[in-house]
Amino acid sequence: MRHRVILFDLDGTLIDSGPIIMASMRHASVTVLGREPDEEAVRAAIGGQGLVSQMRDLDPDRVDELIDVYRAHNEPLHATLETFDGVEHLLRELVGRGHQLGIVTAKRRSTVHLAFDRFPFLPELTDVLVGSDDTERHKPDPDPVFEALHRLGATPEEAVYVGDSPFDIQAGNAAGTYTIAVGWGGIHPDERLLAAEPDALVQHPGEILTLV
Questions:
Q1: Which fold has domain 5-16+81-210?
Q2: In angstroms, how far apart are the furthest CA atoms of the chain?
């Protein structure tokens, strides 16, 4: 076993949440600001510093209102979420091989639990959850990754961080873990992921089994 700990991002990595994030960002911008957001700019920021930062980019004077409208629209949509094909099998196979698993995400813990309610295998198979409310600094800063490693009693050399955004790869690289970028998230193009210099880029969950 090369790496006993495998940490995963959530949005765009384990769950196919890109469409509901984009729909809710558009809803918030149109409702509060009366204009369509710059879709490319919104996509480029997903997975990074979190919702407050994203709303500040839309309008720094109306952040709280934008967040409230976004959450009111977004949280019910979690009932429509799906996981990516092969994700549950991947997690079960990793646990069966003796790996410890964790989730490190820019979501608040309360929002993560909406996904956990829909997909009970996620909390069943993961040993640690680090959300945006668990650290003061957020991806691409390595602190969320360090927090997960601390809770698992693991060193960076023992760990992998898997994610669909350049912020995930930057955080994992800064923490000193092995990093795997996933190309199935539908949010960030492969060229943006490769620019962050992951150790590997994969296009199907099963490929991860050959790398860890």
A1: Rossmann fold (3.40.50)
A2: 53
Q: Is the pLDDT of residue 171 over 90?
A: yes
Residues 6 or more apart whose Cβ sits within 8 Å of residue 23: 73, 74, 77
The distance from CA 192 to its chain's CA centroid, rounded to whole angstroms, is 16
Q: What radius of gyration do the chain's Cα atoms show?
A: 16
Q: Is the pTM of this model over 0.90?
A: yes
Query: What digits encode the pLDDT tens for the residues 92-148?
Result: 999 999 999 999 999 999 999 999 999 999 999 999 999 999 999 999 999 999 999
In angstroms, rounded to a whole number, what is the distance separating the alpha carbons of residues 198 and 211?
13
Active site residue 168: no
Given the residues 9, 11, 141, 168, the one annotated as active site: 9
For residue 2, the model assigns a pLDDT of: 87
Which CATH code for domain 18-80? 1.10.150
